[in-house]
Amino acid sequence: MKFKNIYLILFASILVLSACKKEKLDANSVFVDSTIEKNPLDNYIYNNYVLNYNVDILYKYVDKESSLNYNLLPASYTSSIRLTKLFKYLGFEPYDEVTGSKTFIKKYFPKLINFIGSAAYNNNGTRILGTAEGAKKITLYEVNSLNATTGVNPDFLTDSYFHTIHHEFQHILNQTTDFPSSFQAISGTSYVDDVWSTIWGTGAAGNGAALAAGFISPYASNSAKEDFAELYSFYITLSATQFNAMLNVTGSTAAGRTIINNKLIAVKNYMLTVWNIDMDVLRANIVNRKANLATFDQTSL
Amino acid sequence: MASLLFFASCDKKKDRIFEDSPTVRLNAAVANAQTVLRSKPNGWIMQYYPGTNASYGGVNLFVNFTSATDVNVQGDYTLPITSSFYANIVTSTYKVYPGAGPILTFDTYNPIFGYFAAPGALSNQVSNDGGLGGDLEFLVTKADADSVILKGRKRGTRIVMVPMPANPAAVIASYKAAWQIYYAPNSYRFETSTGNIPLTFGWFMELESLTDVYSFRVTPTGIEFLEPVTVNGITIKELTRKPAAAGYPNGYYDNAAGTLKLVPIF
Question: What ipTM describes this predicted complex?
């Protein structure tokens, strides 16, 4: 009983004393953002990306937003303008038109797009063209390769940026609703993990060998989730002619194509049932936009 | 025990050493750095050393902060001026923002900084992923009218900026001409009374003997080492360029005492 009282008194005094000196909190945050003058591209991004899609573009290099393991170059202002405009034209608007509103992109697309001028070079000779982090951010590299000539070359744009963009976006859709495990069963134990870059050989012969094994690209053999994203992105960014040519490169086999087509059915089915997107309609939209690149204004803001 | 608790709970607040809060002081430092950078209409001469330990030598970059966001950059190592002061001048953007202090960042692509910051796959220097390792972001450790001292955020190299004197066009031309003269030979050698040391070019500006690497930048009057170096017992920080003389058809650089020469070999 005695002890109990002592603790009670102690406890009460702590409460009293800690409460006795109440301090008013400053209404202003201690973290004050510095104000930077807005230029025409800043205004374009705010009006077209932030307001419409709740997505922001970091085209000015921010060290902490990029990987410190690499030596990277900032994106140039002029290339950033081109990619900002093209991103909306080939990346967002096809989804807007197919789904009927901006809501789909606004809800699911990563909130931050980071532009880096150069690729991220590894010491083994490979380089990274794009990364996605936890559904929050997409980083695109080699933005400085974009100019008046490459900007109207649909194959360059697909290879350098938009294949990556749609590939990474597919990962994010998968993270929201996973694809059925039956997809993984199709190629089963054939996935090779990190040796994807060497196991098939290099160049065209490597692509042929991967296709013969039932993978649309060497990278698709990394894992089921990469396979899924690769199939999706190649399918919607390439015309039927281009995609068929890809399936029939030297070294490919009918058996490999059958595996790929079976997986493609699963990808299309997932997109239609989970996201209500017909991949053939989406592809037609993208291919049509690529055909009209010459008349698309990618420099005025 | 009761008294311990009593004091521990009451003595919550420490006296501030400074009058203002850390944020207020940091923001003031950022504003000061920004003001100082923009206060020189002729801009600054930036003594820029890329890479860890500054082992590839240094260059003079001529940076002029022309607005709250824009910066004009030239380098002494680019081709000599052919048409006008504005030849080889490249405009990009910069920003000063709060971090561990004011941080100066050159945040859009500028080929002059880019050459040093690029991975070797693009600059053909050092290694495929590494390159020269030039910083693009700097902690501003001091900013006043006489000089701005920066510290590279990735490599930690100390970089000094001094105000550009009057007549910048002529000053820049003299730096560029001096750099071309320095870079023209195939190799160099140190000459002292106790012997000669052959030197070869390493990556970029770097001069190296079999045992040592010498890091310096070229000035209109000669060359200035980043740190004092000792060659055959003679310590040097600066060498002065001398014209052609008997036995030295291409001139040479020497120290004030005349005991050490840096001789170009064609």
Answer: 0.81
